[in-house]
Amino acid sequence: MGMTIAEKVMARAAGLASVRPGQYVDCKLDRVIAHEEFYRIHAVAVAAGLPNGLPDIWDRERFHVVLDHFQPVINETQALRQRKIREVAEAYQVKYFDDALPSVVHRVAVEDYVLPGELGLGSDSHSCTWGALNCCGSGMGEHELAYGLVYGELWFKVPETIAVNLHGELRPGVAAKDIALWLAGQYGTSFALYKSIEYRGEGARALDMDARITLAAHAVELGGKFGLFEYDEKTEAFLSRRKRMRHQLEWSRPVSADADAQYCQVVDIDLSLLEPQIAKPHTFENVVPVSSVAGLRIDQAMVGSCANGNVDDIAAVAQVVKGKKVHPKTRFIVQPNSWGVYREAMSRGLVDTLLDAGVTVISPGCHLCLGMQGALTAGDVCITSTTRNHRGRMGSGDADIYLAGPATVAASAIAGQITNPMEG
Amino acid sequence: MTTSQRFQGKVWKFGDNIDTDIIAPAGTISFGLGDATEDLDVKQNAFRAIRPDFHLQVGKGDILVAGKNFGLGSHREPANRVLVSLGFRAVIAESVARLFFRNSVAIGFYTFQVPGILDFVEEGEQLDVDVENAVLRNLSRGTEREMERFSPLVRNIVDQGGILEVLKSRLASEREAT
Hints:
The complex is a heterodimer of chains A (424) and B (178).
Chain A: H1 5-14, E1 24-28, E2 31-34, H2 38-47, E3 63-66, H3 76-91, E4 96-98, H4 105-113, E5 119-122, E6 136-139, H5 142-151, E7 153-157, E8 161-167, H6 176-187, E9 196-200, H7 202-205, H8 209-217, E10 226-229, H9 233-240, E11 265-270, E12 277-279, E13 287-289, E14 300-303, H10 305-308, H11 311-321, E15 331-334, H12 339-347, H13 350-357, E16 360-361, E17 381-385, E18 400-404, H14 406-415
Parallel strand pairs in A: 2-3, 2-5, 3-4, 5-6, 8-9, 8-11, 9-10, 14-15, 14-17, 15-16, 17-18
Antiparallel strand pairs in A: 1-7, 12-13, 12-18
Chain B: E1 6-13, H1 20-23, H2 36-45, E2 63-66, H3 78-86, E3 90-93, H4 98-106, E4 110-113, H5 117-120, E5 126-130, E6 135-138, E7 143-146, H6 152-160, H7 163-177
């Protein structure tokens, strides 16, 4: 019987010829990446009675620390944590430590660190983003990462896999974000609970890497363990532009699903029929077409995060705002998700276009997505292309967060109210 | 009768999609040193968006019952640990988000998925959780039902007190072997 991508990767990592969904296996880890929670990994080990923390790290070539959530820090307590992280990183002799390179860890991971066919764990729930690069990435808590860092292995339950077959092409104004939102609207945030999602078909192959990053990142909003794409010429081209860690490129082992792989569910989406979607407060599954809430006043608009701080997202914003002005009562903040993205956006003139329109473009990082910058107070209404609209995520529990694609956010920022970019 | 394998408690009941931003709001964990100050801060703010001052209401040994996808969202281990510091003995939900479930196992805290739990119990009622026999009893109503058994692997980790206890045992056995 054939295997899916997740089954093949886990079988290889477990040293088995094959595995089946539901099976418990011990897998060797190919990659671990921690952000600020690296300190907590050390702290929980100390609290558990290991006075010096972890006795060792199993493989320093496969472990990276990337500070992204509080970079640059905004207060003294965060600064204290950064100091402690530096001390711990030095004590553990961490080889790859992005200490002062503001960027979202997942964008850095796909740009520089993870490889096709790997099984990787991150200290962040959006580590499924790495699936854009054909890597089985998933989030893990600090206790388990402590174990994983010492022994380079961890227990897993082999997930069932859902195939999402994409057909046709998205229309202008519609983005990968709308695919994720549509799926959540149809099937809910438990759609892929304990499951792996594979995005397949000619519609998936036609998506650029940035769109794949959006969909892979949102696997976790659909409940999923992994959000995977096949390796193809776009993956290859993306990897070939890697600037750091080129000495590991030869470790790449792309994994393709077998033709007779077994899927627990198959969903077909005609992308050409999709219209812009929006998730109303306070869950990712509270989805309606944008047109049904058009006209609602907004105070703030944002585009950024692991899912939507990519070059294509910024280009979509630029296309909408070019030659226009952001509504005088709307704050519009854009945060690229890496310096690589930032510089490409600059070299293409996108940043100038945004600044001309009155958009605030801030340094890369995770800030917008969780209210570290652009926080909301009671009564505020925010439309955002970030990852979550949970109550209280960006400050007040009495603020309303709407999630939508970057073109929808940009069109809404110009109008000062929620606007369908296909009509705006 | 209360043992590690069988315990009783009063139920606090929540609906679907209780996310980690509700359980442990991001603003409270920005310090992130995993120390007592953080624990207290997370505890005082837990569930504040939907149940302010929840920490003053929960009693030791209480049981949190919820709908589908409990604990979705950020990986955020403080969201798991705060349930312990609030006094909860276990979570029983229609379904549980993957990371939340794993983190629960990793810290040695019982989290059960029991489809139909919302119909089985109301807030304030007393539940009897019999892990050994995988049976759940509603003591206020005199009803009972089965639960799915944990896999031996998962139960072993929880019973040892979490994955770091497993880690320490393995390190100790390796030291003895050398």
